[in-house]
Amino acid sequence: MANLFFGHLKLTPPKILSLGFVILIAAGTLLLSLPAASTGARISFIDALFMATSATCVTGLAVVDTGTQLSTFGQIVLLVLFQFGGLGFVTMATLITLVLNKRISLKERLLLQESMNQNSMQGIVKLIRRVLIYSLVIQLTGAILLAARFVVDMPIGKAAYYGLFHSISIFNNAGFDLFGDIHGPFSGLTRYVEDPVVNITSMLLIFLGGIGFIVLSDVIDYRRRKRLMLHSKVVLATSAVLILVGAIVFFWLELNATLKPLHAGGKILASFLQAITPRSGGVTTIEIPLLRESTQFLMILLMFIGAAPGSTGGGIKITTFAILASTAYAKLRGKEDIVMFRHRISKENVYRAITMTLLSLMLVVISTMLLSVTESADFLSVLFEAVSAFGTSGITMGLTTELTTIGKVLVIILMFVGRTGPLTLAYALKPKNSKELYRYPEGNITIG
Fold first, then answer.
1. Is 57 part of a structural domain of the chain?
2. What whole-number distance in Å separates Cα of residue 271 and Cα of residue 249?
3. Any stretches that span the bilayer, and where are they (predicted)?
């Protein structure tokens, strides 16, 4: 199916993936610019581009309120964009190919391998079939649970639509919501801060969408294989640590602040949701501007780490963070090898993790500096916005709606790079490989 669009072009998989996102964003921008997409005056081109990029890159930052300023047509455009953006346009194209009973070519298998961050093409089509089935089942289950809760507050038809929209949005880590139509613009899920159904369903959807389809498939196969891949162990263990530590620290920092009015159960639900959602979830039940600066900085750290590879989330990825932490631990103990779950990590993976982190850090630092010049906001709000865009988290301290045109362009670039990945984009833009014919002599540099 990918050959239908790119077959006549000699493009590498990273270039095709990047170009695919550009095409989705362009199509979304065109549709959102139409008068039919708005409830009032049509939104400007830059706002349409911003919303289309945010949806395609499953970020959730919004310059217009989805529930009040976009029509049902505009909301459905967003829904399609973040469904394609979350699962990947290559995956969705493969679905069409499978439905049409077409043969999947070698080039398309290479594309699937790249889009799913797999090391080989073996079983890749089977994995894609599973991804599509798992996604459909999880999103449908989430839609039913949320609709059953929303029907208490609204008519059954509207509850079903809200349940479906929010289930797809939250699972794909997009973070868009429609509650501005009920509770006021940009209100999010704040009215459901103590609601167990909305909170637990949202947390499960974010977690399942954020651990990656490779891990999801591996976990489901555990009963048959009786073992997990190293990748799955690292993702699950690191996710558990980040969620637990994040929730405990959030609870401790906000106990006498934003959590004070809530009952005991509400405090726990709010702490865990706010610990999970920075890793690309995008939905919050606590107003972020009201948090302490220390808590806001905690969320910045979690947003920068992000979700797992091959998932609907962004950031440097939790496997990258795990490798960096393991490398530091090994060096502090004077160990030569970096070992995780009794497996030695290759130097190539370590170099890739370091490169990914440095590129991401440079991107965030440069973007924050530029936004500090273009925007009239305090430094922490600017840093929060930059990291949220890069990590495709979709959480804001209120700066998004106040962005200047230049600021919107900068955030658009951040969202795009954050979704495609700095390394993927670097590979897409790099010149053709040429083999080095010689090596320089080794030298020593004093460090520390």
1. yes
2. 9
3. 16-37, 44-64, 76-100, 131-152, 200-222, 234-253, 297-330, 350-373, 379-397, 409-429
